[in-house]
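User: I'm designing a mutation panel for DedA family protein and want to avoid disrupting the core. Could you give me a predicted structure to guide residue selection? Please restate the sequence first so the numbering is unambiguous.

Assistant: Good idea. Sequence first, for numbering, then the predicted structure tokens:
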Amino acid sequence: MGEPLLIAQAIAIPSGVAVLAYLVVGLVIGVESMGVPLPGETTLIAAALLASQQHHLKIEFVILAAALGAIIGDSIGYFIGRKAGRRLFERLGKRFHHFSEDRIVRAEKYFHKYGVWTVFFGRFAALLRIFAGPMAGMLRMHYPKFLAANAAGGIAWSATIGIVAYKIGDNADKIFGRVSVGALIAVAVVAVALYVVHKVRKRRREAAETAETTTSPATTAAESADV
């Protein structure tokens, strides 16, 4: 939440340009939903935090702008993916690591396994939020079903993230005022420790897989020689 909070604190929105702020929220989220890796969720959180601190922005309109951006952007992405097909992702993969081949394959598996539910719940996952529209179009998902899941997911995501960020911002002084420096240090230490453990386990697993791959051909050759 640190980055959105800093963004919110750095922005002062006069009442005369509040509409522009709503447009920015909708535009960033819309472009992200079309398949461009932009910080859509960060923008929504920043706007919600800002609405909780100032009276120029209304949280209802922030949520509305985010939902419309998500729905319209996903729909545009759907038709782009439907027309361009898989070559769209191949081109994007050369420019953005977000569209690497393994991520595309994983996203396709989700779509084949869960169908429209991938569109709905994908709104809450960073990568699927970018993939959902173009991927659904590429796979030629039935558009009315896609639109229903897209609209439901966009509204649910915008309302959930927006309201939570708004409530946190509205009570930021109370929340952070009760957190001591010692507690923050303790949380940081635990977080670092968990990260180190995760990396060590990952390296051990990769080493074991590499060793297994290396020894398998040798074992097969030895067995053949015995025969």
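For picking mutation sites, this is relevant: Residues 176-184 have pLDDT under 50 and may be disordered. The longest helix spans residues 181-226.
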